Every structure is written in structure tokens, then in C-alpha cells.
């Protein structure tokens, strides 16, 4: 099995490529540290929604629906307000239709490569971003922190290791998600109707007309029960839905089965992600986004127990870490 890691290009943008046997992946450090592709070259599978050459300018302007964007802080914040530890910070209102802040700052920022290489069983790359008073986002959330992402590629698929460190001297919020964009179909010769998605959802949060949680739950529909239990067509209806995560057999994950190809793509995200968003672009066939989140949308302004909604902070010098894996079974 050939295993290698090297610097190259992805549609003209600087990338680090990983190869391990039939798998290959590429990350774009300069565009949000986005893992932009994960492929099985032997079978022609393209698991992630990739931007083509004609989409690169739009992708760079709004890198939210391709690859695995990092959202920090994730999703929506009412009127851009972010109350934390006795202070209220003000994020830019960048979603005019809801008058909310959306998706944070890291998915559009330039990250740096710490190292890349290969060993006997895997190729790997580590990228990081360091936020301090010199970073543009510091004016909105004045905390000092470092986020590191390590991706490795091997026979067991794609592994992601995430590490957040509080570099500052005060308690900082640790709110994060991935806007992971999964192709359906990912296999050549298959159609979207060959696919069924299963997700470890618990309760569905009720959302206001501004797409903000009311603090109440809605009863799951029969389709959502199928989504939880046996799986259903990913584009059965428009979805921009928010759920609690409810691990099954100790695992918190999405499973996407291609009945024609006879394979299942597993996205195992770890139990630290207590919430899911699932978005399917208005039920437009082609890709959808199962988004693991640490926290509830708008968590700092929701009057519910912090542990229930994933609202927590890191003390000075503290780390937070979680791992995920995408593989085929």
C-alpha cells in the first residue's frame, strides 16, 4: 500500500494531499483548514461535496457547503449578541433574513500547517490557527486560544483529531461544530434514491421563525423516527433541523447506505457532540450536511442547564479534545 503526504494544489489553491492505498484526501490550510475532499480512488467514490473549478471563487467567498468547514462559534446567535461570564460580546450580523450572526470566524480564516508526513500505516497533516489580539476575530470575541486539527488517512479511513487550548487568562467559551457536506450519491452509477441515511438523533428542538431554539422540543414525525431507527431517503423533505444527540450502542454517528453499491459510509463523531444539525439545501439532491455540534444553537441566550445544551468554557491553560472518523463498511 502506497502511503504518502505532500504539498500540492487543489483547483489552483495550496493544499496538502494525503494518500494511503485506495484512499486520498486534501486539506486547504489557507481556506479555513477545510478538508476539502476524501475519495476512494479504486471505486470512484467521492464522499465529500467538492467545489469544481467553476465554483472556486464562490467557495472562497462563502466556504460553508463544501468539504468539512470548521464553525467556531457555530450556527446562529440572536442579533449577534453573545453573553458570556458577565459580559455581552457583539458579533457581526451576517444573516440579514434572520438578523443573526451565523457560523463564526474560523471557516473563512487562514490556518497554518504545523506538520505533515507518513508512516508505516498512515499519512497525516496537522493544521492550526492561533487567535490573539492580532487576529481580526479578536475584536468580537476577545479570547486567546489555539485550535489544532490533525487528519490521518489509512486502511481505517479518515480520522480527525480536534484540540482546543485556552492560551489566555480568563474563562473562554468552547462552542464548535463541523458543517460536514456529504455527497449522496457518492458512488458513480448510483442515484440519490439509492441512499438511506440514519442518524443518532434524540429530541427535535423547536425553532422560531428566526431559526433559533425556543427551549422546547417537538414530537418526532414518523419520518424522523425512521431517520433515527432504520434510515430514510436524505431528500425526503427540506431539512434545516436541530436535534439533541442520542448515542446508540455508545456511538454518535451518521450512516449513509448506498443500496446499489452495497456499502455504508459511517461518520462517527464521538459523544462530546451533544447536538446535531441536519441541512439538505431545501431537499436539493446531491449533498446534505449532518453537522455535529458541541452546543445548542444560540446557547448563551437559552435559559436551560448549561450541561444539557453543551455550553461550557475552558479555564486558562485547559484543553478540549475529540476525535471523529469517516470510513466505509
UniProtKB/TrEMBL annotation:
It comes from the Bacteria. InterPro entries: Aldose_1/G6P_1-epimerase, Gal_mutarotase_sf_dom, GH-type_carb-bd. Signal peptide: none annotated. Coiled coil: none annotated. It holds the Pfam family Aldose_epim. This is Aldose epimerase. The lineage of its organism: Bacteria, Bacillati, Bacillota, Bacilli, Bacillales.
Amino acid at each position: 500500500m502506497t502511503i504518502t503526504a505532500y504539498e500540492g494544489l487543489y483547483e489552483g489553491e495550496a493544499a496538502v494531499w494525503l494518500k494511503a492505498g485506495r484512499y486520498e484526501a486534501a486539506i486547504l490550510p489557507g481556506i479555513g483548514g477545510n478538508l476539502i475532499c476524501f475519495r476512494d480512488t479504486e471505486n470512484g467514490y467521492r464522499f465529500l461535496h467538492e467545489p469544481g473549478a467553476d465554483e472556486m471563487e464562490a467557495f472562497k467567498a462563502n466556504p460553508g457547503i463544501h468539504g468539512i468547514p470548521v464553525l467556531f462559534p457555530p450556527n446562529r446567535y440572536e442579533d449577534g449578541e453573545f453573553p458570556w461570564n458577565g459580559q455581552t460580546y457583539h458579533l457581526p450580523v451576517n444573516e440579514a433574513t434572520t438578523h443573526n450572526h451565523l457560523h463564526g470566524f474560523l471557516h473563512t480564516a487562514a490556518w497554518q500547517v504545523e506538520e505533515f508526513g507518513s508512516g508505516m500505516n498512515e499519512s497525516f497533516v496537522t493544521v492550526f490557527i492561533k487567535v490573539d489580539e492580532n487576529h481580526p476575530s479578536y475584536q468580537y470575541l476577545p479570547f486567546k486560544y489555539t485550535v489544532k486539527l490533525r487528519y490521518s488517512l489509512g486502511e481505517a479511513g479518515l480520522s480527525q483529531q480536534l484540540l482546543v487550548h485556552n492560551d489566555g487568562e480568563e474563562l473562554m467559551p468552547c462552542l464548535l461544530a463541523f458543517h460536514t457536506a456529504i455527497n449522496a450519491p457518492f458512488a458513480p452509477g448510483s442515484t440519490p434514491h439509492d441512499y438511506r441515511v440514519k442518524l443518532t438523533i434524540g429530541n427535535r428542538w423547536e425553532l422560531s421563525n428566526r431559526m433559533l431554539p425556543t427551549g422546547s422540543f417537538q414530537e418526532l414525525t414518523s419520518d424522523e423516527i425512521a431517520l433515527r431507527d432504520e434510515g430514510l431517503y436524505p431528500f425526503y423533505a427540506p431539512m434545516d433541523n436541530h436535534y439533541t444527540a442520542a448515542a446508540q450502542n455508545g456511538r454518535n454517528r451518521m450512516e449513509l447506505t448506498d443500496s446499489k453499491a452495497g456499502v455504508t459510509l459511517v461518520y462517527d463523531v464521538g459523544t462530546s457532540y451533544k447536538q446535531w444539525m441536519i441541512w439538505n439545501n431545501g431537499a436539493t439532491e446531491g449533498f446534505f450536511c449532518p453537522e455535529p455540534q458541541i452546543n445548542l444553537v444560540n446557547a448563551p441566550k437559552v435559559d436551560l442547564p448549561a450541561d444539557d445544551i453543551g455550553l461550557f468554557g475552558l479555564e486558562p491553560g485547559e484543553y478540549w479534545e475529540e476525535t471523529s472518523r469517516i470510513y466505509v463498511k
